[in-house]
C-alpha cells in the first residue's frame, strides 16, 4: 500500500514548441492543424535561425500571393496549377509569420496590419485576374460587377471572421492571447500622429482604423458587451464567465473558418480545374455571404445574452483571473 501511495504521479506532458506556436485549438481549422501549421512551423524555425522577422515573412507572402493571381489569368491549366502552388505557399508563409511572432515574442501592431493586408493583396490580384480572364473568354465588361461585389464581400467576410476569432481569444486568453483592438484607442493613437512627420504610419493607422470601424459597425451588441466588460472587469474576467462564453461561442468558430481562406480557395481551385473561373464570384456572393450573415446574427445573439446577464446582476462573481 505504501508503495502505491508513494508511486510518482503521471506527469502531464508540457505543450510542445509547435503547440505554443498556435493561437488556440478553438480557433484553428483542421486543415491548418494538419497541413499549413506544420509547414509554417518549419518555416518559422528556419526564419528564427537566420534572424528573419515576422514582418519580412509577411511581405514575402504578398509577392507569392499576388503572383498566384497573375498566374490564374492564363487559361492554361498547368500555369494555373503553378499559381495554386504559389498561393498555397503564400498561405504557409502567412501561417509562419504568426507562429514566428509567437515563438519569438515579436508581436507588433504593424505586424497585425501587414498580416491582414497580405490577404487583401492576394485576392485583389486574384479578382482582377479572373475578371480579365473572363473577358478573354467572351464575357463583357459587366463581369467586373460581380468581381467587385465578390471582392467587397471577401473583405467583409475576412474582417468579421478575424474579429470574431480575436473576440473568442480575448475571452479565453485575455489581452495577451488575442489581438483585439477597438476604434476608441486606435482613434487616439491616430490623432497623435502627424501627416507631416509620420505620413507613412498615419496612412497605415487610418487604414487600420477604417478596418476596425467596419468590424465594429457589423457587431453593435458585441460592442455593448465589450464596453460593459471593460467597465466591470478591468482586472480580468471571472473564470465562470470565461467558461460560459467559451461553451456558447465555440460552435461559432467553424463559420469563421468557412468564410476564411481554406474553403474559398478549395472551390477556387475546383472552378479553375473546370475552366469556369467566373463561378468563384457566384460562390463568394451567394454561398459565403449567407454564411457571413448567419455568423454575424449568431454572434450578436450570444453577445446580447451575456450583456443582459451582466447588467441584470449576474456578474459571475468578483474573482477574476
UniProtKB/TrEMBL annotation:
One of its GO terms (biological process) is phospholipid biosynthetic process. The chain crosses the membrane at residues 43-71, 141-164. GO terms for cellular component: membrane. GO terms for molecular function: phosphotransferase activity, for other substituted phosphate groups. This is CDP-alcohol phosphatidyltransferase. Keywords: Membrane, Transmembrane, Transmembrane helix.
